[in-house]
Design a protein that fits this description.
Blueprint: H1 3-44, E1 58-62, E2 72-74, E3 77-85, E4 93-103, E5 108-113, E6 119-122, E7 126-129, H2 131-150, E8 156-161, H3 162-171, E9 175-179, E10 183-187, E11 192-196, E12 199-203, H4 205-213, H5 225-243, H6 246-250, H7 252-262, E13 263-265, H8 269-278, E14 286-291, E15 295-301, E16 304-310, H9 313-327
Parallel strand pairs: 3-8, 5-14
Antiparallel strand pairs: 1-2, 3-4, 4-5, 6-7, 8-13, 9-12, 10-11, 15-16
Helix pairs in contact: 1-7, 3-4, 3-7, 4-5
């Protein structure tokens, strides 16, 4: 029997078997993805209260895609983002703090960076640097402090530690950044060794973290906290661009493993799925950035003369208004 005759006789049966195998393969892949997704969200789910906060409201608009057929677009919400420096045997410290006005329907995020030394009231503790809130009361106290400072309700929070940041960047193949000057700083006490040369280059996870953290210098003039914040925002935008690429989808499982071990949040698995679907199309996505500004001044605090970042009322009002406008339907 020649090949043509064979196909005529058995072609339909082969096609049915092939379709069945493809269907089984897709089912296994979807089940495997669902297993990874559930495990990841279970590992990183950490509500700040004994019970989870009120669910984020959803609009009636259904999202495209088949990740979760029941997922709907979330209404705009305010998210606290904290990058933590966790070291063995030490309390986690907040190295980066941002407020993100997330507007899923418009596929827009407006990020406002908060300088670590901003002077404000920490509920139950008194006035101090915002950076100290993490050590005194963890993400909960950081959230409460910023809510009081801006007179705004923060709906959700997320933290990611340095090691998770490094691994995510490496898994994505690095991020392309234009390093504008030589950056060199060494501090053996905390094992910091930064040495970046100028030019357009792809930074590894370790190098991207050095770029985002650099402020002190062995070579001369040090950077301000504003310059440091600008670099952090640059890294965030570069990662946002990478996050919607085909490469990211291919590495979804390995990224889930990394995030599950290094992220904590009170976003539920359903809310995260809705966000993944809302921002899945990279074209309309926009990330806008801003910074809370003030002046570094030396003031007496608890009998010690130290440097603090003082924010005028007008600037606090400006940022509050900006966030409210970004969250408007």
């Amino acid at each position: 029997m020649n090949m043509l005759s064979y196909l005529r006789r058995y072609g339909k049966r082969i096609a049915r078997y092939g379709a069945a195998l493809v269907a089984i393969g897709l089912l296994v892949a979807v089940s495997f993805a669902a297993y990874h997704y559930k495990r990841m969200t279970r590992e990183w789910y950490a509500p700040l209260e004994a019970e989870t906060g009120a669910p984020l409201e959803q609009t009636g608009e259904r999202l495209p895609g088949a990740l979760l057929a029941q997922a709907k677009t979330l209404k705009p919400f305010l998210l606290l983002v904290i990058g933590t420096d966790s070291r063995d045997g030490e309390q986690a410290r907040s190295d980066t703090m941002m407020l993100a006005a997330v507007h899923p329907a418009k596929q827009r995020v407006h990020l406002v960076s908060i300088p670590r030394d901003s002077y404000m009231e920490l509920p139950g503790t008194g006035y101090d640097k915002l950076n100290h809130a993490m050590a005194y009361g963890g993400p909960k106290l950081v959230k409460q402090s910023l809510e009081r400072f801006f007179n705004l309700k923060i709906d959700r929070y997320v933290t990611i530690d340095f090691e998770g940041f490094r691994q995510v960047v490496d898994e994505l193949g690095g991020v392309q950044i234009e390093v504008k000057k030589r950056m060199k700083y060494t501090d053996p006490s905390d094992d910091t060794h930064i040495d970046l040369k100028p030019g357009l280059q792809t930074l590894s996870g370790e190098q991207a973290l050095d770029y985002a953290r650099y402020r002190k210098s062995d070579l001369g003039r040090e950077d301000s906290d504003y310059q440091r914040i600008a670099r952090q925002q640059e890294i965030v935008r570069a990662l946002a661009d990478k996050g919607t690429s085909a490469q990211t989808l291919v590495k979804a499982f390995s990224l889930m493993d990394i995030l599950g071990s290094h992220v904590k949040t009170d976003l539920t698995d359903q809310e995260i799925a809705s966000l993944l679907l809302a921002y899945g199309d990279p074209e309309p996505n926009t990330v806008q950035t801003d910074t809370l500004t003030g002046a570094d001044e030396r003031i007496w605090h608890n009998g010690v003369l130290g440097w603090y970042h003082l924010v005028p009322k007008e600037e606090r009002s400006r940022v509050r208004q900006l966030l409210m406008e970004a969250l408007a339907p």
